[in-house]
User: Fold this.
Amino acid sequence: MNPSQLLRQHYSDKVTHHNYSETYDRLLAPFQNTATAVLEIGVENGCSLRAWQDYFPNAKIIGLEKEESKLFQYGRIQTIRCDTTERDRMIELAASFPMLDIIIDDGSHVAHEQVWALAVLWPKLKPGGIYIVEDIYKPEYLGLFKAFGAELLDLRTPRGCADDLMAVVRKA
Assistant:
């Protein structure tokens, strides 16, 4: 199964509400059998984490979530309480992570927090890895990610979801 099929199977809002399915199919395919560590900021109900666990058979899946009640452990999934606004905690956690193949920010959806998280986690991204920022609130905020060499994606059509804006940064 491809990422969009797994995200749909696990009822992730990445495909039920947002228009990210084909983009994830394209971006994640090269990592399917080689990824050893995937991190996602924002756990919500864990749907996408379960999809990543199914899609990446060799990867540890790490989820960061600010709400204690949403934390869980399942198979190769580990969730950790962390709010990206807690600067010292975020820096401490980042230092403890293994090198990551993929980082997905589906957390606060606040542009300055997204940029800050990218800056803190960038050293933990492996060469050849990919960093994806979802749900950028306004088109004018996309420019904040250009300094990182981001590919900027406007995926608001056909669904018309206002925040279906994504930044994709590849580490050379």
Remarks:
- The radius of gyration is 15 Å.
- The chain has a mean pLDDT of 93.
- The chain has six helices and eight strands.
